[in-house]
Amino acid sequence: MKPTRRQKLLGALLIAGIILGGIFIWNVGGVLVAPANHPIGKPPAKLHAQPVEFPSTSGATLHGWLVAGRPGKGVVVLMHGVHANRLSLVARAEFLARAGFAVLLFDFQGHGESIGQTITFGHLESRDATAAVTFVRARFPGERIAVLGISLGAASALLAEPPLPVSAMILESAFPTIYQATEDRLAMRFGVLGKLATPLLTCQLKPRLGIDPDDLKPIQHAGKITVPKFFIAGTADRDTTMAESQALFAAAAGPKQLWLLDGAAHVDMHAFAGVEYERRVLDFLAQSLN
User: Fold this and answer.
1) What is the pLDDT of residues 50-60, one digit of tens each?
2) SS3 content of the chain, % helix, strand, coil (to 5)
3) How far apart are CA 152 and CA 261, in angstroms?
4) d(Cα 138, Cα 152) in Å, to the nearest integer?
5) In CATH, what number is assigned to the domain containing residue 173?
6) Residue 173 domain flag
7) Alpha carbon of 276 to those of 87, 231, 259: distances in Å?
């Protein structure tokens, strides 16, 4: 039985819709991986930082600010979130510097002043994390080092291979897998239909970036890292749900601790919790670096 004229028209419209939808999703993927580069300028005067740059095996020269601390206090390497840069870390750097720590805040490749071709959601950024730790180890030989990573920064710290040679990690709003991170963000914006589009975005990782989605699973690395870890997450976070944060914590090797901030979404936890954030972070560092 031959299809009717109406059936042919509906079929053509369906095919056209699928093609247009595919083009739209491909373009969305392009926007998500596009570099977020722009000039940063001089460090804030009250930070008393010096501009630095150092190479990374990601292929980028990383740009940052270095704050000198009291000898023997330790060093904290700050790692920002996706589409952000070192400016988002200034408030944290200030309270850590007041406590006597040396602090490095830098731009991941593809962010701020660190030029890169694409954002890779932890693949190349994990190499930047290694480069940053290597840089401060050379600058401050003998000092104990901690990293404080936020979202992408936390995932990059966990994904580093081999594990970062540090004494402690503070991990804020870290996603367990890139698939869950994508699904959460699509569901938050488009509901159930958004979830259905998740494979259409994650399948772009290979042709666009040469990355297998299975390579972006921080939860699989957390069990191999045996230094003290302090996980911080929000109970109202929809970008990385509380259940996902709890699953990541459960998978992590000890010693570890988890702080769930009541009512916090995927926000700046320092700005959200203020003095309590500073107290808990400094207590953890005192226990882990002394």
Assistant:
1) 999 999 999 99
2) 45, 20, 35
3) 19
4) 25
5) 3.40.50.1820
6) yes
7) 22, 15, 11
